[in-house]
Amino acid sequence: MSLVGKWFGFGSDADYDAGLRAYEKGAFDEALVKLETALERQPEGLARYYLASTHRKLGEAALDTEDFESAVEHFAAARELYPSYPDLALSHARALRLAERLDEAEAAIAEGLALNPHFGEGRLFEGLLRYERLGEWEGVRAAVTQYPGLEGTLFDEAQQAHAAGDAKGAAERIAEIRPGQVQALEIRLRVADEFARVKRFLEAAAEYRQVLESAPHYADVHCKLGQVLLELGEPEEALQAFEAALERNPRYAEAHAQKGVALRTLGRGKEAKLSFKEALSVNPNHPIARFELGRPAI
Description:
Elements: H1 14-24, H2 28-41, H3 47-64, H4 68-81, H5 86-98, H6 102-115, H7 120-134, H8 138-146, H9 153-163, H10 167-176, H11 182-197, H12 201-214, H13 219-231, H14 235-248, H15 253-265, H16 269-282, H17 287-293
């Protein structure tokens, strides 16, 4: 179970329990049905979080099978549940582009960039859409120049195709670009997440730190590092990690909420309350922030 599960354990709702078990074994269609039922009864609980994650997993699976309309529906549902996540907006926009719904794709990525104007992959995708629609290369070039890690072989190939007048080939390569060293980083992240899942927090922290050495702009990795540092009884270091996440994405509800947990652990209750309120200002349904603000003496 994820780290956040300690706030909302098993036993409070049979459908939630069944949905979470299905989620953790990868049976996402089954999880969807159970979590939707649980959410109807407990709209402020953690079912919302896992239901959004389930829609995301199903959207990714639909992309793999080129069922683009299903992918659009799942990412839209995930965004409806958690509208403040720019990476969900990007996933939605990518699915809309593949479904040839370009106006909607432009609107989705604009909403994601409004949440985090420094979202490099989002800027690159915005440039891709302008390139496909208007033939403008500058947005693509600017994104790759401004945000470290987007340059590389795929961008070089895209430039060559663009220079040769092969706009379709250039666009195909741009669409495949992810932050540099992404395959190695994704493997390391999966390892770190698995260490955290089985409560091997020292190993998880080491892996997250290795990822951040190569990709310090990943707000979510800073947040995950902070979470395992809390588990290791290091709230001061955890607080620094959450603040690093918020420097990179000031509207990151999870980081605000976890920062509040760290502050509360340090006995800084008034500051913790402000952090929980910040989390709710971004995501009014954030489960940890709502739960923590309801506890006494905060």
